[in-house]
Structure formats: structure tokens, C-alpha cells
């Protein structure tokens, strides 16, 4: 086009250039569609598993630790629903009329107990070097997907907002995971430790039966979540740190519980290894899950684009350019439940019930309950 040529030849080349440009636009659109399709297919691939993870279903999970013993009662044991009704702590019937099944009102001392659990948990975890957060409770569906959850599947646990790309969070793990999305962190900042309070929303698709009654499985609840960004070689160490924090807190509340190394089929897509904590619930006459701690290695950080730049640059070669910055590496992410409020309320009511129908408040929570030691009936 820059050289001398006949006008007819120039016009032909102009037309050819226009066709190439239009063809390129069409190819770019196809590429975007193919990239989206590839991303959806890739998201179906779960993380690798730790070599020590038990292979099989939930029944193959291994007990790591058993703490305490089940309380013995000299009177008929009540479940949390019966205790809550007598002490005027819950209202499931009105909530069902207002919102639907698996919703509830907390009332009176149950409200104070929730606040006490949240504030006590935050104070305990912050003592261990975690930065407190509250988070958005609506996030983009792309962030949900990048954290390893499926917001649009048939049996999804995620509530999606109609005519938008947003979802309600099922855990603060999702917005905290997105906190450093598409960024390169300085190695000196690691580890980054956060403890986040949020409300959580779950469809609980397929959940039914007496084992999930009352507060055990609900659509909305409060939770305190721990989250760590760290260097890859440190993630197993911090996984042990997270489960130790959980065990220490549940022990201080006097709960009888066991810690499980979960089997491969119960890990979920993001987890490389997962430890669950199950506490004894006398009214349900079984152990029930109250917490978990997962090492997701770089599964989430690759999708979220969270990297760090090592402090030490590689040895310079004669041909290397100035600067000699080390190439960025993906961080590892870990998450753990510090306090899922409804399940903790079940444990406290059922384990600390007294013959007269009152509930003893564990000592660590009393300063957060105005110094009170007992929840008793309103006269």
C-alpha cells in the first residue's frame, strides 16, 4: 500500500484489508467463546489430593483425634428444638410463613449467644495474628466459579440473583479469596491471615430428614471464617495451624469432638486435603459437623490470578536484562471455619442443659454475655 500503484489495485487492497479486519473480529469472537467453553470444562477438574488422604467415600475418613467425653445426664435429654421452645429462643413457624422452610428467628438470649460466639471467636483468632474483615455478601458468579464452586449446576448450593451476574455467598471464603484477585504480592507480605465475619446463604438442595432438623441445616446463618494466603512450601504447616486453632477453641468450650482426615470423595473440587471437626450433640444422639479446614494449594489462586514475587532474584546471566526480577509464583490458599453459629448453638444448648431446663454458659463466653453464667426461662 505504501508504494506506487494503480488506483484499481489500491482499491482492491483496501477491500482486502477490510475483509481481513472483519474476519479477525469474527475469529476473536470465536476465540472468546472457545475460551469460555474451555474454562467451564477445566472447572470440572478437581484439585490433586494429598498422598495421605484416605481413598473412598465419607465412611473411609480417618479419625485424627478424639477430645473429651460425652456428658452424662441423670434426666431425660432434650434436643435443641425442645430446649429452644421452652426458653423462647427460636421461632421457626413464623419464619416459615415469612421466608419459607429452613429459616428461623433467634430471640432473647439466643441473640446474645450468637453475638457472644462471634465476638469471642474474633477475639481469639485475632490473638493469633489474623486481620479481621467483614465482606460483601453478594459476589460475581465468576469469582464463585474461580473459588471452585458451581453457581449454576442442577444441585448447586448457591443462590443466584436473577438477571444479574451476582450470587449470594455460601461462605466468606469466596469474597476473601477474591480480595487479592489479579495481583502480584510481595513475598514479604506472606502469609496473609484473615478472619472474616459474614452471613452465609445456601440452598441446601436435597437436604431433608430428622437429622437435619432445627438449626442443623438452614438457608441463612452467621459464620466466622479463617483464610490464609501463603507460600507453597508453607501450606501444610498452616493447615495444621488452622486445625489446631479450631481444636483449641472447641476444647476451651468443653465440647466432646473428633477431628477427621476426610476421604477423597468428600473433599470437594478445591481441597487438596480437608480436616473436619464433628462434635457430640446429645439431643441428636450423634456427632455432627461443626467445622472444617481445607488446604486448596494453588487451585483457587490459579483461577483468581493471585501470585507473589519471590524476594531473591535468580542468578543473573550475561544476557539477562536489567532488573532481574524473579518470576511470580502462585500462592497457596487455605480456609477454615472458626465458628458456624447455628451448629455451635446446638452444641452449647444440648451439652450444657440442666435438669431445671436452664443452660450453663461456658466460662469463655461469659464476659461476652454480660458476665451471666446461665440461660434460664423467662418468668
TrEMBL record:
MF annotations from Gene Ontology: ATP binding; serine-tRNA ligase activity
Protein name (record): serine--tRNA ligase
Binding site for ATP: 202-204, 218-221, 289-292
CDD domains from the UniProt entry: SerRS_core
Site (Important for serine binding): 337
UniProt-annotated binding residues for L-serine: 171, 202, 225, 335
Record organism: Arachis duranensis (Wild peanut)
EC number annotated for this UniProt entry: 6.1.1.11
Limits of the Aminoacyl-transfer RNA synthetases class-II family profile domain: 127-362
Pfam families per the UniProt record, alphabetical: tRNA-synt_2b
Amino acid at each position: 500500500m505504501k508504494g506506487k500503484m494503480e488506483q484499481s489495485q489500491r482499491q482492491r487492497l483496501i477491500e482486502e484489508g477490510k475483509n481481513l479486519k472483519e474476519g479477525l473480529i469474527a475469529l476473536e469472537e470465536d476465540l472468546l467463546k472457545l475460551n469460555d467453553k474451555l474454562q467451564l470444562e477445566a472447572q470440572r477438574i478437581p484439585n490433586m489430593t494429598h498422598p495421605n488422604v484416605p481413598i473412598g467415600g465419607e465412611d473411609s475418613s480417618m479419625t485424627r483425634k478424639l477430645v473429651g467425653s460425652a456428658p452424662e445426664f441423670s434426666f431425660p435429654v432434650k434436643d435443641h428444638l425442645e430446649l429452644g421452645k421452652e426458653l423462647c429462643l427460636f421461632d421457626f413457624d413464623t419464619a416459615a410463613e415469612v421466608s419459607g422452610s429452613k429459616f428461623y428467628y433467634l430471640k432473647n438470649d439466643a441473640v446474645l449467644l450468637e453475638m457472644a460466639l462471634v465476638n469471642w471467636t474474633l477475639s481469639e483468632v485475632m490473638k493469633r495474628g489474623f486481620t479481621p474483615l467483614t465482606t460483601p455478601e453478594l459476589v460475581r458468579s465468576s469469582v464463585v466459579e474461580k473459588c471452585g464452586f458451581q453457581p449454576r449446576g442442577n444441585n448447586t448450593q448457591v443462590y443466584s440473583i436473577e438477571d444479574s451476574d451476582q450470587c449470594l455467598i455460601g461462605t466468606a471464603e469466596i469474597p476473601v479469596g477474591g480480595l487479592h484477585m489479579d495481583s502480584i504480592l510481595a513475598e514479604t507480605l506472606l502469609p496473609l491471615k484473615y478472619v472474616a465475619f459474614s452471613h452465609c446463604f445456601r440452598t441446601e438442595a436435597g437436604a431433608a430428614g430428622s437429622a437435619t432438623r432445627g438449626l442443623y441445616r438452614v438457608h441463612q446463618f452467621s459464620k466466622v471464617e479463617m483464610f490464609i494466603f501463603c507460600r507453597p512450601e508453607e501450606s501444610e504447616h498452616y493447615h495444621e495451624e488452622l486445625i489446631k486453632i479450631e481444636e483449641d477453641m472447641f476444647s476451651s468450650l468443653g465440647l466432646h469432638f473428633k477431628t477427621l482426615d476426610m476421604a477423597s470423595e468428600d473433599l470437594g473440587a478445591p481441597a487438596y486435603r480437608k480436616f473436619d471437626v464433628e462434635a457430640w450433640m446429645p439431643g441428636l444422639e450423634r456427632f455432627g459437623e461443626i467445622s472444617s479446614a481445607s488446604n486448596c494449594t494453588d487451585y483457587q489462586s490459579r483461577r483468581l490470578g493471585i501470585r507473589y514475587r519471590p524476594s531473591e532474584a535468580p542468578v543473573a546471566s550475561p544476557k539477562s536484562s536489567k532488573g532481574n526480577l524473579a518470576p511470580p509464583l502462585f500462592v497457596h490458599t487455605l480456609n477454615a471455619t472458626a465458628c458456624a453459629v447455628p451448629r455451635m448453638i446446638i452444641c452449647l444448648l444440648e451439652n450444657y442443659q440442666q435438669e431445671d431446663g436452664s443452660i450453663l454458659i461456658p466460662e469463655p463466653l461469659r464476659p461476652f454475655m454480660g458476665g451471666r453464667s446461665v440461660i434460664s426461662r423467662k418468668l
